Amino acid sequence: MSDGLPPLREVIAQHGLTARKSLGQHFLFDLNLTGRIARAAGDLTVGTVIEIGPGPGGLTRALLAAGARQVIAIERDDRAIAIQHEIAAAFPGRLEIVEGDALAINAADLGEAPRRIVANLPYNISTPLLLAWLARIECFASLTLMFQKEVVDRLAAAPRDPDYGRLSVITQWLCEVRPLFNVDRRAFTPPPSVTSTVVQLLPRPLPLAPARFATLERVTAAAFGQRRKMLRSSLKALGNADGLLAAAGIDPTARAEELTVEQFCALAMVVDR
């Protein structure tokens, strides 16, 4: 990468940036791979790119090299923040560093639209981050994210698939899910115990069916919390389960994994009556 900055391994050595398990850190050194992720995110020359946990800055540099007009990097690790300031100096006016915990920062309010999130997410907070972004998905043009492969399998799973669950329903209700490519564990330092996958989530113009986000979360949490039970049993916490299911036109002897996204939405609408 001809950005005038030192190689990533040299940067890490200079700043003593060993990965911290408590922060879910796994660093990417392969600039070909970070470039591939940046290219997958689409046209970055308009709007804002938001990156979470940039670490040594390999993806940050790739996003800027790919022409990103503005990158906002959210980082809580002081050692990595110093690295980000060095990158910002090499790309004047194009990189803003936000110091803090990504879980406490509302990404939907950062920068100018269209907003795209592009990130190698810290594994230990990836799911709560995703749910927070989905709750305001209308604020984003796309999410291009790296998760553990098993998480992407859940995002993309269809009814009756063993991986189908609450995360599948809520994500597919709001987004088109496009798994892009796998990343071998050996591409990271330290290597995680599993394969990772880059996935792109493209917000739908309208959700698949009418429902309130909070209610759909409650319904799917109850249903999949006891996924091997019939819905008439697993949904008792919501009230008269048989009555709710009858009103939604759903067989009370069905199990959560058998319902489509649209059926869960119909059930959520009944709960809200």
How is this structure best described in words?
Strand 2 (48-52), helix 3 and strand 3 form a beta-alpha-beta unit. The strands form two sheets. This protein has a seven-stranded mixed sheet with strand order 4-3-2-5-6-9-7. The chain has 273 residues and is α/β, with parallel strands linked by helices. The protein is elongated and about 65 Å long. It is built from eleven helices and nine strands.
Provide a short characterization of the protein structure.
The protein has helices at 8-15, 31-40, 58-65, 78-90, 126-134, 149-156, 166-174, 213-225, 231-234, 241-248, 261-271, and strands at 27-28, 48-52, 71-75, 95-99, 115-120, 140-148, 175-183, 188-189, 196-203.
What key phrases describe this protein's structure?
9 strands; 273 residues; alpha/beta; Helicase, Ruva Protein, domain 3; 11 helices; seven-stranded mixed beta sheet; two-stranded antiparallel sheet; Rossmann fold
Q: Overall pLDDT, averaged?
A: 94
Helix/strand/pairing category: alpha/beta
Q: Sheet bearing the most strands, described?
A: 7 strands, mixed
CATH architectural type of the largest domain: 3-Layer(aba) Sandwich
Tell me the name of the CATH class of the largest domain.
Alpha Beta
Instruction: Give, in spatial order, the strands making up the sheet with the most strands.
Output: 4-3-2-5-6-9-7
> Would you tell me which CATH topology of the largest domain applies?
Rossmann fold
* Count of the separate structural domains: 2
